[in-house]
Design a protein that fits this description.
- Two copies of one chain form a homodimer.
- The first copy, chain A, is of the alpha/beta class.
- Chain A has 18 helices and twelve strands.
- A seven-stranded parallel β-sheet of chain A has the order 6-5-4-10-9-8-7.
- In chain A, helix 4 runs antiparallel to helix 8, helix 9 packs parallel to helix 10 and helix 12 crosses helix 13.
- Chain A is globular.
- In chain A, about 45% of the residues are buried.
- Chains A, B: It catalyses: 5-phospho-alpha-D-ribose 1-diphosphate + nicotinate + ATP + H2O = nicotinate beta-D-ribonucleotide + ADP + phosphate + diphosphate.
- Chains A, B: This is Nicotinate phosphoribosyltransferase.
- Chains A, B: Belongs to the NAPRTase family.
Chain lengths: ~425, ~425
């Protein structure tokens, strides 16, 4: 018996838009944690975010229709947090802590709407800017990236017949499961999904999260995606990102305040959160400079998330720093999240095992590894290096130096000034693949 | 919006049985061609078929529930040819020939029903016999095999969650498509699906056929499965099988008639069919004996289907035979169908290219290659070597010698007699994997 459900079919055909982002919780958890800090301490600050496509060879505006992009961004702007979502944020424990979010903050969040955007096409690329209060523009980072990445994936799949899609996903599933089987051999692995922004698509990310959960059991500790965490009863994972030191550095008056700004961020953070959330991100202006100037109390924090140095060298540098301050690294935590994949996870895990607790945030190579999966060939589904970064705060230019000069952002003159203040020690160019 | 189609779901849950064989056309085309010959020339002959599991290590009756097997066999006995099916058999051209089937034969076929079966469990194996008129028992071969193979696959998958099944099929699809991409590099390949009897399941065979059609285009010439040929507008492929010489040999009175029986089959066949259907199966009692004794007119036939000798050696033997009789092999056809897979297809294709036309019947390794695909490990989905062979005709024992003694069937004393009549030249044991 061939059974056609005419109602569903008619409904499906009537779609005006297949929305990519369908909830404001379809974002990274750290955005909410940072938002609460920004809302508490920097409510008056303006911040502009901009899309940066590091993979210049992919001319996004030639691939993605501008009208479709606007329709998706406009749809995201119609979203509000639902009652169920607000109740969950209020009632759920995060990192073992109840009432992570202040009732006043949640009351404010209830009416939150993504602010306006400014979109232009220049030389085959999208110039996409979000200008306005930091409390609002910050929330565009993840949906903007996941929308553009999924629109690109959809463009890469447009015109493929059902069969080619079937092979494509069979290969991608086989690929991922082969990775899971390798990771399964690491008994003390601690891993989470950090793949929201660069995902192939929402449904694919959900499948990947289910796969890793199924394959790794308790070793998979959760996902950075708040919506998936809520819907799948997983832990929401994340702490903070470069935008905090970048904005505070941009607002600093003079070189001395600039040099102190990374620690001011940590001080604000510890006044807002504690426990497992005390993870420092050391590389915004170079890890060596950060460690050299760090106050003693930073050594009491739970750990670090080295995010642009090579994982083993970057981790060793932090271990040395802890030891020099009399701290036992075995009680500390390193979170690795910079373009990790099975090989680098295995190597980093083996290198540090027994010497320091490690945790891995697996991003693009978890949720968007379609390399060589397309039966029609080509690279239209290979991931690109797309970021959405703060570029100015209250009209002052923002800078990120990073441990990897290939990941630096900001105006050349300002970068020069930052290098003068923070130094250039131990920074080395690594190719940025994802 | 989560949409649940309650009616479909309720219907699905109400199934008493998920039938494996749902049409009498879900069989190999050669069964119909042979059936017409049997119906015309041997209507009074009785023939008994029996299931033979060559993979003794797999105790089928421990894996498959006897009640489930009976339910599937009983269901197959309820099937009759539908009006659409009979009209298609009458109106379709096969091998470019219209009216392949006689109207009287089709009128008889209209009321065809699979006959009774005799099922017992002995020492962990099913003893399954079909006794009765040859015109009826012959039609059990394919449904009996595909039912048992699919029940075994279902047993191997029982208890697996949705996720493990997802990985299983992703891997099997990836595997098959990798094979298709290799075969695609052979520009003059001619290939067809011979995988009905050993398939993992009907839906999987259909997917495999679609995949090969998609990947190989015109180089995929069709399928042996009549139902799939009808539903997918493919050519139905097939000629004849060992049961014809086996029955005629069993019925032969004395050694001289026995020695002549393989050619009597060909004579009956050419009186019934012509053109592309003039393909001889030389190995029932050894290819060397067959070629040595063959009348001159056999060299005028379109070609041979060597089915148990190693493909290159077996093909060379036939080429020599054609050349010795002044025939140009480039006008002849060799069909290879014995446990072929990508490696052996590539090697055989390369060896004979330009010297003789070749065609490949791809069976078990097309429709049932799940080796190492099970995320839970184990071999419960690896194919086994299961056949359903004629064992007696009008109460006299039937024998198959084959070019490969591992594939011989029959009582030892009769095999001895056949070896005396046909000789044992050039027969050599090859492992029988599928």
């Amino acid at each position: 018996m061939v059974y056609t459900d005419i109602a569903t079919r008619t409904y499906d055909h009537g779609w005006r838009l297949d929305p990519i982002v369908r909830s404001l919780l379809d974002t990274d958890f750290y955005k909410l944690l940072m938002l609460q800090l920004i809302w508490r301490l920097h409510r008056g600050t303006h911040a502009t975010f901009a899309l940066i496509n590091r993979t210049r060879s992919v001319r996004l505006a030639d691939v993605i229709d501008e009208g479709e992009l606007r329709a998706q961004l406009d749809h995201a702007r119609t979203l509000r947090l639902g009652k169920k979502e607000l109740i969950w944020l209020a009632g759920n424990s995060f990192y073992g802590k109840a009432r992570m979010f202040d009732p006043d903050f949640l009351a404010w969040l209830k009416d939150f709407q993504l602010p306006e955007y400014d979109l232009r096409v220049v030389d085959g690329q999208f110039e996409l800017h979000f200008a306005g209060p930091w409390t609002h523009t910050t929330m565009w980072e993840i949906p903007a990236l996941s929308i553009i990445n999924e629109l690109r994936a959809r463009a890469g799949m447009a015109g493929k017949d059902r069969f080619a899609l079937d092979i494509l996903y069979a290969r991608a599933k086989t690929r991922l499961w082969d990775k899971v089987e390798r990771l399964r051999r690491l008994p003390d692995l601690v891993l989470s999904d950090f793949g929201t922004r660069r995902r192939h698509g929402f449904l694919w990310q959900r499948w990947c999260v289910e796969a890793v959960k199924e394959g790794l059991g308790d070793r998979f500790i959760g996902t950075s995606n708040v919506l998936l965490a809520m819907d799948s009863d997983l832990e929401a994972i994340g702490t903070n990102a470069h935008e905090l030191p970048m904005v505070l550095a941009a607002l600093a008056e003079g070189d001395a305040a600039l040099a102190a700004s990374p620690y001011r961020v940590l001080d604000e953070w510890r006044r807002t959160y504690d426990g497992n959330l005390l993870i420092a991100l050391p590389d915004a202006f170079g890890t060596t400079a950060f460690l050299r100037g760090a106050p003693e109390w930073v050594a009491d924090w739970t750990g670090f998330r080295p995010d642009s140095a090579p994982p083993i060298a970057g981790g060793e540098q932090i271990l040395d720093w802890w030891c020099a301050r009399g701290r036992d690294p075995r009680e500390k935590l390193l979170i690795f999240s910079d373009g990790m994949d099975v090989e680098s996870i295995e190597a980093t895990y083996a290198h540090f095992r027994g010497r320091v607790r490690t945790s891995f945030g697996w991003g693009t190579n978890l949720t968007n590894d379609f390399r060589d999966c397309d039966p029609d060939g080509g690279a239209s589904l290979a991931p690109i290096s797309l970021v959405c970064k703060v570029v100015s705060a209250d009209g002052r230019p923002a800078v990120k130096l990073s441990d990897n000069p290939a990941k630096a952002t900001g105006e050349p003159k300002e970068i020069e000034r930052y290098l003068r203040v923070f130094g250039n020690a131990d920074r080395g160019v690594q190719p940025v693949l994802v």
